[in-house]
Amino acid sequence: MTLPPCSLRPLHLAVALDGPPRRARRGPEAYDPEHYVRLAGLAERGTLDFVTLGDSFARPGPDALAVLARVAPRTGRIGLVPTVTTTHTEPFHVSTAVNTLDWVSRGRAGWTVEVSRTRAEAGLFGRRDAAPADALWREAGEVADVAGRLWDSWEDDAEIRDIATGRFVDRDRLHYVDFHGTSFSVRGPSITPRPPQGRPVVAVDATARPAREVAAAHADIAFVRAEDPGTAGAARTELRERARALGRDPDRLLVLASLPVELYSSGDAVGLADLIGDWHADGASDGFHLRPAEPARDLALLVDGTVPVLQHRCRLRRFYPGATLREHLGLPRPANRYAPARKVSS
């Protein structure tokens, strides 16, 4: 039998670990870290690029970033991408928390930028009222911007740790950010060294229009919820064109079609492989973010059914190409924006 030629364009796969609110938020599994460790380990066995875990101030549940920090030492390759809400939170703390996840996972962290829209959520904090979506996403873009600057505020070789001289940090390699946004100011530098990836991967759900400019300007990954390849492909084209207009390399913005998944049998698993292969071949997306109805059931069928079919058809890799999430995604480690200025002045 002649095998089909391997795909020249890499296919990226990710899966959401959070199930539907009606079930996942009531049972003890929602608060059991071992539940998420098992799911992430299963996704890693299938060589998926990363897992996501949603979060919101609008419902009870564990903090997604803290949960994945617990998952990190129990996994070795899978990327970990929690949702982090930028509204009502301090940008400096957001940056530090995501940086810490990158360190504890040894370079496998990302974060999905999200906003908080409702009066009820604003009332939990009592600091300001709810705002329109455009204003919230404008602020979210500024948070993503300043987070990157804070990650760059330490050069890679800023740590000295010279016990003999008592010098632990080279102050010439620390930089003030001095960022002034519409609703906050951050001076910096960060209190944690530059992350292993340089900058953890930034993801944005770009389905809604107000989020698309943020995705085009700051995201490494954009999720688009679409029911057909035409819609997904049009969104991918638009996002890449916006990124190019902002001076970015559009090839460094990966657009993943975000699809609900409900699998009951290995027939279903093969059918999903057919759909993924067809959409990807048509250029509708750079990969897929799958949202299982029942994570434990659907993820097992995905890993043991869909993944082997895609690998047999030469559309999906059989092993991880590296150790970091950026390496999984084929994204380069960003240069430090402050280091060149220091070298030129010296």
Instruction: Compute the separation of the termini in Å.
Output: 63 Å
Q: Largest beta sheet, briefly?
A: 8 strands, parallel, barrel
Structural class, by secondary structure, is: alpha/beta
Report strand order across the widest sheet.
1-2-3-4-9-10-11-12
Rg, alpha carbons: 20 Å
Describe the protein's architecture and organization.
The protein is of the alpha/beta class and 346 residues long. 40% of the residues lie in helices and 16% in strands. It contains 12 helices and 12 strands. It has helices at 21-24, 33-45, 64-71, 91-104, 119-125, 133-152, 209-218, 229-245, 266-281, 295-312, 325-329, 339-345; strands at 12-16, 50-53, 79-85, 110-114, 159-162, 167-169, 179-180, 185-186, 201-205, 221-225, 254-261, 287-292. The strands form 3 sheets. An 8-stranded parallel barrel has the order 1-2-3-4-9-10-11-12, surrounded by 8 helices. A two-stranded antiparallel sheet has the order 5-6. Strand 5 and strand 6 form a beta hairpin. The longest helix is centred in the middle third of the chain and has 20 residues, at 133-152.
Annotation keywords:
12 strands, 346 residues, single chain, 8-stranded parallel β-barrel
Q: Summarize this, please?
A:
The protein is an alpha/beta fold and 346 residues long. It contains 12 helices and 12 strands.
